[in-house]
């Protein structure tokens, strides 16, 4: 069996750079999510009408030429690519269990470094990879196709009536896609926030526990406190009657048929 490659200083430096890129891009993604998810939450108060108005205000942040490229898609791409690159780096150059040279006896100094025990992937990692295809599908459906010149629906015409149509005509699929994307995003965000806190701010309020009861309590609070209002808002939207002309409903169907046919 081939010996593990040495975990050199260059590899450590590259890994630290990728980690920093991943952490620095996180606040931009969090800001986008706060704005984006506030629209369905407010459907609990004013239905799809209020949600649509909030969404239009949010687009001033994340759908301008600068905002979409540098405040949303750019940070998301950097976050995803840096995470994948770091995983590949750890696969090619697995961390080694090293000991100071002064503590080794003469016979041990010439021995190759022992490979560190491989641990099970963390919840942060397990939620990251499914998010890539889920977000890609969500982006294609709600932004990519409507932004295309050949699209039957223009981006400016896309509001929560489209979400309502999706929920009413493809209930099982749409609830699965929206629910999975929401749950995985929140879990990944909470786990990532703990990692960032423990790395940069442990002296403020101490380190946060990353396992045990504290971890699951934190996740449950996030899912109930954030996912709950979002899901209930979407449920309120799904119970409303369509408020668009039949021609627009046909165009909604054409957009979704493009996505699900592909």
Automatic annotation (TrEMBL):
<dbReference type="InterPro" id="IPR012472">
    <property type="entry name" value="MCP1_TM"/>
</dbReference>
<dbReference type="InterPro" id="IPR039960">
    <property type="entry name" value="MCP1"/>
</dbReference>
<protein>
    <recommendedName>
        <fullName>Mitochondrial adapter protein MCP1 transmembrane domain-containing protein</fullName>
    </recommendedName>
</protein>
<feature type="transmembrane region" description="Helical">
    <location>
        <begin position="175"/>
        <end position="198"/>
    </location>
</feature>
<feature type="transmembrane region" description="Helical">
    <location>
        <begin position="123"/>
        <end position="141"/>
    </location>
</feature>
<keyword id="KW-0472">Membrane</keyword>
<keyword id="KW-0812">Transmembrane</keyword>
<feature type="transmembrane region" description="Helical">
    <location>
        <begin position="219"/>
        <end position="238"/>
    </location>
</feature>
<keyword id="KW-1133">Transmembrane helix</keyword>
<dbReference type="GO" id="GO:0055088">
    <property type="term" value="P:lipid homeostasis"/>
</dbReference>
<feature type="domain" description="Mitochondrial adapter protein MCP1 transmembrane">
    <location>
        <begin position="133"/>
        <end position="226"/>
    </location>
</feature>
<dbReference type="Pfam" id="PF07950">
    <property type="entry name" value="MCP1_TM"/>
</dbReference>
